[in-house]
Design a protein that fits this description.
By secondary structure, this protein is mainly beta. Helix content is 1%, strand content 46%. It is elongated and about 110 Å long.
Length: 396
């Protein structure tokens, strides 16, 4: 015996199913109640809601109950209780069976299409149907899926074709469940049996189509195209060192999967925010390191798009890089510090024509406040200086 209540939440909240004891008057649990005996199993799938009794032991009338639990952003929000009676009788008929695709994903803007095979082992005529929120325009904001019978030479083997042109307004964090039903048609007074099969479908938004990054001083400036889904409310920016060499399996692997090594850098809270300057939280980025980025769009319910293409950039060495600052003399008044640096090797002399000079600054504060200039060098090859007549005892 197979049954599915076909529950859905109009707001896309997550649902789960659990068997509970049947209750009597006043909602009080029935003393001594047990779940029906089965040759193999009696179970309720917590995700799809498929109630499967395989196989009843004794004919009779049986009562079962279950809760359909609702969760909002991971928090329990209530339940609906379903009580039902099941009549078990002697029967020599065999139920049909269904072959459908495994749980899958579809990119908003694409069409998901697959066939469902329905077969009756007793060669009876098979009726097919499908249900779930995905088939109802009013429940998903229009553009519902369709399920239609495909003509075949034998009535006991029937193909049903599922088609869904998923759109951006279908994107949500919780999946859709399409439930397929096959029923064998029996002569008068014979018992018709059914088979049910569920397919879980996630609708994922495409990521920004393009993203560019270029180095500017000790920062990298990012720009990307607007999300193709107007329902998005902002972007996540991810960063890693060096390009990820593998492939992200969009749409089922949305966001920036952990196996890529990308980590969340920042979140921008507007769909119109399509640029970002990475300055390493004000510390500046390191010269010679390849920084790579992915951009994803996110939605009000927390769902996340596929990732954009990767973009990578390396800082040009167009600035001097400090390499040493060593105390040479320790004294309250006559102390000295040796300072050197690496000269810029990628300086754009067209954009920044000579003459060039180094200006060297000192701060008496450990945190780098209140810098004052103490030296000027007029050639790029002169990369050392000694700061003298300073306090190297009490200062940082």
């Amino acid at each position: 015996f197979i049954h599915n209540p076909g529950a859905f939440d109009p707001e896309g909240d997550s649902l789960s199913y659990e068997l509970v004891q049947c209750s009597g008057d006043g909602g009080v649990a029935i003393p001594g109640y047990t779940f029906p005996n089965a040759t193999n199993s009696f179970s309720l799938d917590p995700v799809t809601g498929d109630l499967v009794w395989d196989s009843p032991v004794t004919p009779g009338e049986y009562n079962v109950a279950f809760h359909i639990n609702q969760y909002k952003r991971g928090s329990f929000a209530g339940y609906v209780r379903r009580d039902m009676q099941i009549l078990i009788g002697q029967c020599s008929n065999n139920p049909p069976f269904i072959e459908t695709v495994a749980d899958t994903c579809v990119l908003a803007g694409d069409t998901l299409r697959f066939d469902v095979t329905n077969i009756d082992p007793d060669h009876n005529f098979v009726e097919i149907s499908a249900y779930g929120a995905v088939f109802v325009d009013s429940l998903i904001g229009g553009d519902a899926a369709t399920y239609s019978r495909v003509t075949v030479p034998s009535n006991d083997t029937v193909f049903g074709r599922f088609e869904w042109a998923a759109q951006c307004h279908h994107v949500r964090s919780s999946p859709y469940i399409a439930q397929f039903k096959a029923r064998d048609v029996q002569p008068v007074d014979s018992i018709s049996l059914v088979a049910l099969k569920s397919t879980v479908i996630r609708v994922i938004a495409p990521g920004p189509a393009s993203v560019t990054g270029f180095a500017n001083g000790n920062t990298i400036e990012l720009n990307w195209s607007t999300s193709p889904c107007a329902e998005a409310i902002g972007y996540h920016v991810y960063r890693r060192i060096n390009m990820y060499s593998g492939t992200i399996q969009c749409p089922c692997d949305n966001g920036a999967p952990s196996y890529t090594g990308y980590q969340l850098l920042t979140t921008l809270r507007s769909i119109d925010s399509t640029e970002y300057v990475d300055n390493n939280s004000g510390q500046g980025l390191a010269i010679g390191v390849e920084y790579c980025y992915l951009i994803t769009a996110y939605f009000a319910d927390g769902s996340e798009s596929c990732a954009s293409p990767q973009t990578c950039a390396t800082l040009k060495k167009d600035l001097p890089v400090l390499t040493h600052a060593d105390v040479r003399t320790t004294d309250v008044a006559n102390g000295s510090v040796y300072v050197d640096w690496s000269k810029p090797t990628e300086l754009d002399t067209v954009q920044f024509p000579p003459p060039h000079e180094y200006r060297v600054f000192r701060s008496n504060d450990f945190f780098g406040n209140n810098f004052t200039q103490f030296a000027v060098l007029n050639t790029l090859n002169d990369t050392t200086v000694i700061d003298t007549l300073i306090n190297t005892v009490d200062g940082p």
